[in-house]
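Let us practice reading a record.
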Amino acid sequence: MTNSELDKLIDSIYKSFPDIQTLDLQQKKYFLNKLSLKLSKKEKPIYSIPDNLVSLYVTENIPSEYQKVTQSALNDITSYLKSVNTSPIKANENDIKGFLKNQYETGKSQSAVRVKFSRIKKFYQYLETNNYILHENNPFNFVNVSDVEYKNQTIIPTEEDIHTILNSLDINLKVFFAIILVKGFQKDAFDGLCFEHTLLETAETGGRIPVTYCWVNEFLWDFEKNRDDEIIYSDDFWQVLNFYEYISSPKWYIDLLNDFWNKVLRFQISDLEEGPAPGELYYLNNSINIDQYEKELLKVIKKLFKQGKISFSYRMKDFYLYAIINLYDRTHNLKWVQKRLGHTNPNTTRRYLQNAGIKIENEKKV
């Protein structure tokens, strides 16, 4: 470009931006300095992103012990952005805020989301440093994890949704879910779970009926001795136990355990020449992974929600709260609830129930 052409360009700029002429001397110096820096700066070329960039980033830049969690975090953000019809390269700060909100709504803890945010942010810094995106196109330069409020909200499942979920499970998973719903056992309590089957006749049964029940020694009922004479007949040594397990459990639960005994437990126990005695934990005897059971259950719940068959994509803590509320409603015994929750202080249990909208009544004495 010739000097004459440059002069014309300068005149054109002045005509197009008349505000430049209104600047005072100091402002003109600042403007010219900034313009000079801008013109002298070499723009970095933007490279196209290879399909395997994420895997290359993880394997080449992340220590081996953190590769799995980093890959999981990047899979989560990619999946979310795809669900809102955008991509990691086109995502803006509102998309990232939407992702954080989604993580909280699906039950992730605040600490878990912060860790995930940090790992994804480092990936975007890598993209910017290596000229895959411009600084102004990196949404993590404009959003913080604290921009999205953390709400630890628990949803109490409806009876209709619970039975929809139950009817969608195979018998083993159904029993696992039912025990959580009725007994409120945390998953680690399953290591001490016992099953028993008996013929029972009481005033409530109106005849001799088969009853299968389960319990954990740590959570045995403190029986009301004045009701022991209501047992007319029982073929089980634990007659007091099975009586109170029966009267405290819904009919659908008793029927399900009977079905479980007849279809699964009775054959598993009778086929053993040596080993566990009848009533010992079926899950533990067969090395069933309780964590896997929980994952499979949540997978079914997520599928039912996507199909519009249940109201929410419930989390496990929602079902534990449901069980605890029903336990307190049946017994009004804060000590039993405190023991189920593993709280060391009864005031913690009171606050837990009150935060769930439960009115604390006078404690039942047993």
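A brief commentary: Confidence is low (pLDDT under 50) at residues 275-281.
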